[in-house]
């Protein structure tokens, strides 16, 4: 506690000492301040010219931004045109798919019809061949039976390898 009071007392003494010393402001200090003010005034002019240059640069950038926006509008128009052309191509593709599908279906139908027609056209011929075959077999049987009684007929049938 004593230490704390000692430190507080010491601080109070040092504070009053620091306030008692005066800072002298001489004529030389005044001249120096005037020169600094003149330099700062010159810097203000320079800053104004730099600001003007930056404003010119900003104006150029704004002009470039306007050009970019115009280019963006053109790209959007191209995108719209491309999308419409893409839709047209998709429509043409689907048309070709449908066309090829119909052509393949018609080809398969035609081949099926040909197979069915061939079978239908051959059926009467097969029936006729079957009847002729039966008639031929009956004729051969009849000739063999007749050859058993007629000798001349038996010789003719042997000559043609029927007996």
How would you sum up this structure, described in words?
There is one protein chain. This protein is mainly alpha-helical. It has helices spanning 2-20, 27-147, 151-159. It is rod-shaped and about 175 Å long. It has three helices and no strands.
Compressed to H and E, one letter per element, the order equals: HHH
Q: For the terminal residues, how far apart are their CA atoms? A: 157 Å
Unreliable spans are none
Mean pLDDT: 85
| Beta strand count | 0
Overall 3D shape: rod-shaped
How many separate helices? 3
Our estimate of the beta-strand percent is under 5%
Assembly category: single chain
Summing up helix and strand content along with how strands pair, one would put the structural category as: mainly alpha
Percent helix range: over 70%
Tell me about the biggest sheet? none
Radius of gyration over all CA atoms, rounded:
62 Å
Question: Strands, helices and their partners?
Answer:
Elements: H1 2-20, H2 27-147, H3 151-159
Helix pairs in contact: 2-3
Short description:
With 163 residues, this protein is an all-alpha fold.
Provide the descriptors you would attach to this structure in a database record.
163 residues; mainly alpha; 0% strand
């Amino acid at each position: 506690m004593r230490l704390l009071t000692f430190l507080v007392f010491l601080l109070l003494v040092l504070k009053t000492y620091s306030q008692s010393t005066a800072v002298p402001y001489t004529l030389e200090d005044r001249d120096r301040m005037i020169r600094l003010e003149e330099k700062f005034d010159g810097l203000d002019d320079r800053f104004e010219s730099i600001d003007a240059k930056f404003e010119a640069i900003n104006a150029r950038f704004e002009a470039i931004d306007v050009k970019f926006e115009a280019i963006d509008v053109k790209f959007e128009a191209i995108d719209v045109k491309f999308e419409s052309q893409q839709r047209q191509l998709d429509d043409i593709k689907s048309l070709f798919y449908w066309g090829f599908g119909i052509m393949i279906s018609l080809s398969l139908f035609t081949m099926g019809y040909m197979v069915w027609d061939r079978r239908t056209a051959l059926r009467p011929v097969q029936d006729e061949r079957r009847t002729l075959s039966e008639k031929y077999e009956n004729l051969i049987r009849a000739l063999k039976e007749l050859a058993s009684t007629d000798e001349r007929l038996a010789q003719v049938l042997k000559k043609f390898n029927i007996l």
